[in-house]
Specification:
The complex is a heterodimer of chains A (about 500) and B (about 325). Chain A is α+β, with helices and mostly antiparallel strands and about 500 residues long. Helices cover about 30% and strands about 20% of the residues of chain A. In chain A, the strands form eight sheets. Chain A has a four-stranded parallel beta sheet with strand order 8-7-12-13. Chain A is globular, with a radius of gyration of 23 Å. With about 325 residues, chain B is mainly alpha-helical. Chain B has helices spanning about 5-35, 40-50, 60, 65-75, 80-95, 100-115, 120-125, 125-150, 155-180, 190-200, 200-210, 215-225, 230-250, 255-270, 275-280, 280-305. In chain B, helix 2 (about 40-50) packs across helix 9. The chains are: A alpha+beta (about 500), B mainly alpha (about 325).
Amino acid sequence: MAKADREDEAANAAAPALPYDEMRSIDGTVRPHYAALAARIETLSSEELSERQRTLERFFLLQGITFTVYGAESSTERIIPTDLLPRIIAAEEWKTIETGLTQRLKALNMFLADIYSGQQILMDGVVPRDLVLGAPSYQREMQNLYVPHQAYANVCGSDLIRQPDGAFAVLEDNLRVPSGVSYMLANREASKRVFPGTFRGAGVRPIDRYPDLLLTTLKSMAADWRPNPQVVVLTPGVYNSAYFEHAYLARLMGVPLVEGRDLVVHDNMVYMRTTTGLRRIDVIYRRVDDDFIDPLTFRRDSGLGSAGLFNAYRAGNVVICNAPGTGVADDKAVYAYVPEIIKYYLGEDAILPNIETFLCREPAQLSHVLANLDKFVVKAVGASGGYGMLVGPHSTKAQQDEFAAALKADPNNYIAQPTIQLSTGPCLIGNDIESRHVDLRPFILSGEKIVVTPGALTRVALRKGSLVVNSSQGGGSKDTWVLTDGKDLHP
Amino acid sequence: MMLARVADSLYWIGRYVERAEHLCRLSDVMLTATLDRTESASQIARIALAAVGDPEDTAKARSPYDSALALVLDKEDPGSVASSLALARENARQVRDQITTETWERLNMIHFRMTDPHAAQSFAGGSQAFLHDTIADLHLFKGAADATMSHGEGWRFLLLGVYLERAQLIGALLEVCFGEKSKRVLADHAAQTSLLRMGCALEPYLRVYTADIRPDLILEFLLLDEDFPRSMRFCTARIEEHLTSISRHGESESPGPDRLAGRLRARLQYADIEEVQAGGASAFLTAILDECAAVHKAVYEAFVAYPLEQHLPA
């Protein structure tokens, strides 16, 4: 998008800010990077579009990209709602996203390395000490533990939104066990089948190197003296809602998919049970939450991890990716300080801005939030997945009263942000094309290097007018095309 | 090298898929036989039901349609086709990273056919067509596995499951017809051809023995034929082949399952039908089935549920 264009819109979108439309500018003309797709859609009848939608859904069903809905008598499998119209991002916009995300993850890794060693940033008073050390996601077991390349969050999935003025901002960093990358890859496979001609013509940057870049990242975390490191993916098992993704990544990386019951820890070494005896493991890409990886160190009732795993990690005999305790850097309260964190470690201004955030632990900010509950989005610090959240403008008086009471009772547990009109994109709803709100989750890998894959998961709030994109709350997804500027044909 | 749990799952996929196919075929033969109102129809139904482990239940044999419907679609019965396929798919889901997409898609399709809310309706509308399609889909699954999976350790565990299950199913069928407890001889021509059909053996049998159908020849064919893929001899030869190859991957110390499998194969390879009958077919079949069970147990002890102490570094 041209700069003049954006300023134009910022001026026009005064007062009750209209959401930014991904496909059309404010005067209704199609933005240049959407031209090819818009032209193609014009030539298709709604019948033909629905037919393509069915092709896409069948593809997902056959591949087993489903989740199970448990009913009273029988359980059925459903696919995650997927929209066939891709979301398109122009090359120059992507450049900003890419450099912004790289900067952000670099700073967050430095922050984690610092708070788990000398805690200089806390001594300098940039981030309140109690906020960090009191966060439930802070793991003191990680203190003074060597992490190669200071890469704590090897896989990061940040949630970006586009504000009404057209600029991207970071809504949330996910540094624990972010999921959704398999949908990014599967959506791409599907959209190549649905819009082959348009896809070829548009010049879309490929994302299919993600699995091998992930493997390279994981291998770079292994100790130097282990020349051919054995990497595995650790899954909670087949009943986990992201199980498809765990199996998918293991298959595409060509590494074993293990469960806790396959692992044996002996003498601070981690082994897996194979048909030919025990085999040593060097790197575990774990898709199990911190609390569950080792019943000896964390939750005792967990059967998903392996007893003694954390000690083997401490001894340097195995690497756990992402490192335990990374969650403290994506804590919703710590989030408010990320621009200062970037400034502190890198001496730079944040390229991607934060959303204005009010910390209810500060009395002045709390009273401001309480006075304007109908305008704010209030989130519980520890919750995720769209739960424990109040969307002010869409809430009833009773809900607001309920949250006001909760806020006063435990202000530390809440933050508030102004309600942001997420940008909208075209979606096929029934037989018609309608606008729905979307966000953007790109995936960033960090090991020896930081790599941003030129693509993302675009999540869609399929309910009309809804701003909640989480799949647990009626959200769906669609493919995301990052266009090439002609210079960089390779990622 | 592969995870013990994964090997176990692949092995069971093979077993469940083979079981489902066999049950479909028995149901099909049973339903086809009952189209003729002959005395042998109920004998055939009794054979089929006895071969799947249902004790001689005359009430069931009198309503073969209901028995077949239950055998195929009853989700409550852990031994039904629907349950076997659900278990096969559940195992496949757990090792989704180990089987190719092509193979997975086939199994997934069959699963959707069985769990379709209209499945009972389409079974009623044309049970033979329904069973025929299910068997054909299972063949496609095996074909996809053969054509797209690497013929390495995982694939061999899958086929080990297929052949071990097949040997045991055919063995059970023969025991019903030739064992001690078999009350009546297979005198009837319809019963004899139906038995061959249950083993998917009619056409291959005719090629070897022509249309001279006799119980002792049927026994010889299903037990000892070298080339027919459902004869017990053929199955045990494959079991030995796959186990030998699997064992080569590891450094097995104890006398492994491959030795048991070799002995089993040799027993069938060098058997002679007259000797078998002289000593009693029943005793021979019992011995073979016991050895199959021993192979299954040995596979578990060698590859899946081995004691850890043997393998930990000192």
